[in-house]
Amino acid sequence: MTSSTPRSPTIAIIGGGIAGLTLTIALLKKCPHLPITLYESASAFGEIGAGVGFQPVQVRTMSLIDPRIATAFEKCNKGNTVTEPPRWFTVRVADQRKFAGSANGEIVLGKDEAGGKEKRIIRLGDEVFVMPARRGLGGGVHRAHFLDELVKLVPEGIAQFRKKLVDVTEAEDESGEAVLHFADGSTAQHGAVFGCDGIKSRTRAIVLSDDPCTNAVFSGKYAYRGLIPMSEAVAILGEDEPRTNQMYIGYHGHVLTFPIANGTLMNVVAFSSTPAWTDPNWVVQTSREDMLQDFTHWSPTVRAIMTSLQKPDIWALFNHPPAPTYYTTNPLICLVGDAAHASTPHQGSGAGMCIEDVYILSELLSQCHSSRDFESAFRAYDAVRRPRSQRLVKTSREAGQLWEFEGEGVGDDLEALERNAMKRMDWVWDYDILEDMDRARGIMREERE
Ligand SMILES: Cc1cc2nc3c(=O)[nH]c(=O)nc-3n(C[C@H](O)[C@H](O)[C@H](O)COP(=O)(O)OP(=O)(O)OC[C@H]3O[C@@H](n4cnc5c(N)ncnc54)[C@H](O)[C@@H]3O)c2cc1C
Ligand SMILES: *[C@@H]1O[C@H](CO)[C@@H](O)[C@H](O)[C@H]1NC(C)=O
User: Fold this and answer.
1) Domains defined along the chain, listed by start
2) Which of 78, 247, 280, 431 is most buried, judged by most C-beta within 10 A?
């Protein structure tokens, strides 16, 4: 095709969220020979006013891409309370219905003393167990603050705004390059396109030729999201719970709280269930009354949290069916982040997967000089990243059920729930990305030989 093209292909990145911005930063650093333009449909970079959490495995990968990304994360996270040993979440039963029919509103756990477990009495709101986190820098940040820090690492002139991609076609000049078509009628020609355009990705539809797995499907869950100033949260809930990560569990719902913005805000995500989502919008405004209705049976703590939420929005939670591929070669288009594998948030790792994608991809691209090199890089990226990121989508959806007393073979059995919870993050967190990096380099070398 174009392996004899003398100049290096120019790169288009579609979308400036966490995936698109980190990819831009990575390529600027590792591939100075590849000219880059980032196209964003909005009029400026921006993230929503909500929290996002990263675990040490993902923050280490940020460092591997560029230490300044980990520094940016740390700057947004510095004042958060650090627990020793580190905790992911303290899990509490907060649904009164779990205690219906039990004597004095108490549940007895650890009856099986042969199993070495001490007998414990649990009341509404009590800690059932703690899910440990791994040691190292991690935790919650305010999305907009983190994005602002990433934007500072992108020089002027790289990004173009109000550029909504509508189509990609193959150039007619026999270069094999991609022609990008934007909603404003303009076009641009590039050697390779990186689709970082999120869950409703246009590039995904193009790569998958509108295969049925293109569109995200409703997961059965939606979430209210909001922030509470930490001082207010502490006034309502006391010193303990708001400053560390809490998971309040119950029937068909659960509520997460964790500190963000240096511990100055408490981030709240309150999940609930519904069989179908019919509104064409996935984010809708709601009223405090409707929201409280969903938590009628919950503990005073949870109801107090919900009452304090400012301007609650509802987010319908969708995820992608597994795509058979993350790239196409005529022209060269590769999917990154949510565009490739949008997940529910129940294992807190969707954005972490974006970071991992970017590390693997940018290292491979640093060895690319021709379109043919790009093809081998895409194939290696796809081979290494697709299984892991699609496993997250699947297990995350299952986790949503687990936290809401719907887990297969688990239901509302708290001890079975604990056993499942304690192991389910291991493969995400105890992951050595350098092994996959070696594997990807090996695949790329084979391809080129
Ligand atoms: C409730 C909730 C909580 C979450 N919590 C966590 C968490 O704690 N930890 C975690 O790791 N992950 C979490 N996630 C997942 C995480 O938010 C996503 O995986 C991540 O933000 C995806 O980033 P992205 O850059 O791929 O996509 P996006 O952030 O969606 O960015 C896409 C960008 O592309 C632009 N765009 C879209 N279409 C076009 C087009 N046609 N042309 C040009 N530009 C376009 C958009 O304007 C946007 O800027 C959570 C998700 C949800 C819903
Ligand atoms: C958090 O703290 C860091 C370092 O102390 C500071 O640079 C940053 O601006 C703070 N951010 C917020 C949102 O308070």
Assistant:
1) 11-80+137-215+320-408+429-448 (3.50.50.60), 87-132+218-319 (3.30.9)
2) 247
